[in-house]
Amino acid sequence: MKRITVVLFVVMVILQTGSAQNRFGFIGGGIYSKSNLKNQSRNAPETFAWNVELHDWQVVNNSIRNKITYAGKFSGYGGLEYDLKITNAFYIKSKLLFVSKGWNEKSDYRIDSVFFLDYVDSISTSIPHRNIPDESTKSDQVYSLGYLELPVTFAFYAPVRESLIFIGIGPYVSYGLVGKYRYRVTESNKQNRLDSTRNLNISFDGNTKNDLTARRLDYGAALEVGVEFRNRMFVTLNYTAGLVNVFEKRYWALQNRNRDLRIGFGYYLKNRQQRRF
């Protein structure tokens, strides 16, 4: 407890030192998030059976396909920003944000023109068979993860006409707060079609009977570029890359790390002693 108190005191002293040139503001915008999971496509090999009538091998299963694609999802983020001035051209920019991340997973399992041979005996002159109609199972899974995020970037500023451009890089750390999972499956053949949807919560503490348990702590690298205008408004473009697998059990053999691209619009509160232009 004493160590935490000392750290907080030091931080307060740093923030107060030169506070006339430090800046506080608000930021929010849109985010396109995804995972670094790779798309998968699997085709079942052809299966053969001996045709006693033709005395030759015959294909009995020639098309089973399973395709899994991972796509991004659109959401939003918002929060506070505090910029600590080091020099006129160098600031440490920190934010406290609520960020919605996640991705979409789509699966397409399809069986085309499958039939099986039912042999009566080895010298049968006729070979009865039963056809299975074309079947497909499509699923759409949406993972939505809400984090409290703290990115800290080291930014360099340069004047360009009536504005300032900046570029920054640094780490971020996120703490998982809430998670949602939506699963929709469509099963269809030539005669029938069945749709079903399920909505479940994603747990961050492991108290779940399924594999929808995400790691609560996420961290990685953040990159941002932006423009600041004379009216204290600014626009930023950010990219973050996580270094932690979100789900350990669900994708136990695959990397599943957060990736996102976001655009933000912000506004600094007025500081009478601050002159940036």
Estimated helix fraction = under 10%
Which structural class do you get from the secondary structure elements?
mainly beta
Q: How many DSSP E strands?
A: 15
Task: Please state the average pLDDT score.
Answer: 80
Distance between the termini: 43 Å
Low-confidence stretches: 3-13, 114-132
Oligomer type: single chain
Strand content: over 45%
- Give a quick account of the main beta sheet: strands, pairing sense, barrel closure: 8 strands, antiparallel, barrel
- SS summary, helix count: 1
What is the overall silhouette?
Answer: elongated
User: What pattern of helices and strands is seen along the backbone?
Assistant: HEEEEEEEEEEEEEEE
Strand order of the largest sheet: 1-6-7-10-11-13-14-15
Would you tell me which CATH topology applies?
A: Porin
What is the radius of gyration computed over CA atoms, rounded to a whole number of angstroms? 28 Å
Overall number of domains: 1
CATH architecture: Beta Barrel
State the name of the first-level CATH class. Mainly Beta
Topology of helices and strands:
Blueprint: H1 2-16, E1 23-35, E2 40-43, E3 47-51, E4 56-61, E5 64-71, E6 73-87, E7 90-111, E8 114-117, E9 129-132, E10 135-160, E11 163-189, E12 193-201, E13 217-229, E14 233-245, E15 257-268
Antiparallel strand pairs: 1-6, 1-15, 2-5, 3-4, 5-7, 6-7, 7-10, 8-9, 10-11, 11-12, 11-13, 13-14, 14-15
Explain what you see.
The chain is mainly beta. It has a single domain (19-42, 70-109, 137-268), classed as Porin. Helices cover 5% and strands 65% of the residues. The protein is built from 1 helix and 15 strands; from the N terminus they run αβββββββββββββββ. It has one helix at residues 2-16; strands at 23-35, 40-43, 47-51, 56-61, 64-71, 73-87, 90-111, 114-117, 129-132, 135-160, 163-189, 193-201, 217-229, 233-245, 257-268. The strands form 3 sheets. The protein has an 8-stranded antiparallel beta barrel. A hairpin with a 3-residue loop joins strand 11 and strand 12. The longest helix has 15 residues, at 2-16.
